[in-house]
Write a structure and sequence with these properties.
Largest sheet: 2 strands, antiparallel
Distance between the termini: 68 Å
Number of helices: 19
Order of helices and strands: HHEHHHHHHHHEHEHEEHHHHHHHE
Structural class: mainly alpha
């Protein structure tokens, strides 16, 4: 067959140099990644961005040709992942299944999810396309698209088209199902202490559509933009902005940017609203401005053995309680009992975190609770806590 294609196949682009094939593979795989991150993920799963019907259907068609994935199934699995993250009901958590299982068999976990939960699509797949094309072509002829793509690759590139087609098939199972869902909950840096193990893999996200900024996404799940820090880059967001300039996309939500009135020294309704909007930023700043300085001071006063123990406690001091196992909690309590200032800083962090989880608290209750929290912080005599109490009061809704 290969000889036939080489001699008689169309292969209009079969004589291009090797780097030409690399560029073609990059273009094809990036188109697949954009179809996943912009259409399946940001548009369909989270409604973070609205896409023009023409753009949506281009993505739907491309996904049918290159992955065979069904929109409703992908969306349902992803929504369940967010709803049940890092639990036994999470369809693809490396904490539950192990990093090797998710990395190498992530696609198999996707296929197994609907069988394990018969109500998955009904419960989590609402709002996805249900038109004639979706029912009778993309779903009814699910696997035909892959063979059509094989024919297209052979027609365009001759025998090398088989390799291009194989790489296209591998890209999503490896980089999306394995790399993002696996390594993205296992290794990397965290901007925010979310109640899961999500991590940012790289600050310069470019080859998997911005999905590398996974911790940012789990923090602001309904955001069309995944980058948060000024030095982070989300190529998916760049594509959304380009589509927006020609009227083909409209972002619905982006991460909030905290604003401050540096002369403000009171706690009022505006303070509460600003802190609620920026609560993840607030807790990240608390770790940076309070936990780390107090820990540093305790280490300076401690003996060599205690310094080693304190160094090992840094991650636990800022981690969400839901992610700390019982043994780690006992070790942390043992260390904190020996260091009064660190214990005070840690306990006040827990109180501050719990404050924003009181869904039934009235605005007046939140104002009173925050006022009492600031009084406690200042009463400790710890400079970092006193300074942070003043810093909290400067949060504002005004951007100017």
């Amino acid at each position: 067959m290969l000889n036939f294609l080489a001699n008689y196949g169309y292969g209009y682009f079969s004589n291009i140099p090797w780097w030409g094939y690399l560029l073609i593979i990059l273009a094809f795989t990036q188109m697949t990644i954009f179809s996943v991150t912009l259409y399946l993920h940001r548009n369909q799963s989270h409604r973070a961005v609205e896409l023009h019907p023409i753009i949506s259907h281009i993505f739907r068609l491309w996904l049918w040709l290159t992955t065979g994935m069904l929109t409703k199934q992908w969306v349902a699995i992803h929504r369940k992942h967010h709803a049940k993250v890092e639990t036994v009901d999470d369809p693809h958590s490396p904490i539950i299944y192990g990093i090797g299982k998710v990395f190498f068999e992530g696609a198999e976990l996707y296929r197994a999810a609907p069988k394990q939960d018969p109500k998955l699509l009904e419960r989590y797949g609402n709002g996805t396309p249900d038109d004639w094309v979706e029912r009778y072509v993309y779903t009814g002829l699910n696997r035909y698209g892959l063979f059509i793509m094989l024919g297209i690759d052979l027609f365009l590139f001759g025998a090398p088209g088989i390799t291009i087609w194989a790489i296209q098939l591998m890209w999503i199972p490896l980089f999306a199902a394995g790399f993002i869902n696996g390594v993205g909950h296992y290794w990397g840096y965290r901007n925010f202490e979310t109640p899961d193990f999500s991590r940012n893999l790289f600050p310069l996200a470019f080859f998997v559509g911005g999905e590398e900024l996974h911790n940012n996404h789990h923090t602001y799940g309904n955001s069309a933009k995944f980058s948060v820090k000024w030095w982070e880059f989300d190529i998916g967001w760049l594509m959304i902005r380009l589509l927006q300039t020609v009227g083909l996309a409209k972002p619905n939500y982006v991460p909030p940017k905290p604003a401050f009135e540096h002369e403000k020294n009171t706690i009022d309704a505006e303070t509460i609203k600003a802190l609620m909007r920026n609560r993840f930023h607030l807790l990240a700043e608390y770790s940076k401005k309070v936990i780390v300085p107090v820990l540093r001071e305790e280490k300076q006063r401690a003996c060599d053995q205690s310094k080693t123990l304190l160094s090992r406690m840094r991650a636990l001091l800022i981690r969400d309680n839901l992610l700390i196992d019982q043994n780690s909690k006992q070790r942390l309590e043992s260390i904190l009992s020996q260091f009064k200032n660190l214990k005070a800083a840690y306990q006040l962090r827990i109180q501050l975190q719990n404050m924003w989880q009181q869904t039934t608290a009235s605005q007046k209750d939140l104002i009173d609770n925050l006022y009492q929290w600031c009084q406690q912080a200042e009463a400790t005599g710890i400079k970092a806590l006193s300074d942070f109490s003043k810093y909290i009061k400067t949060y504002s809704l005004r951007t100017a």
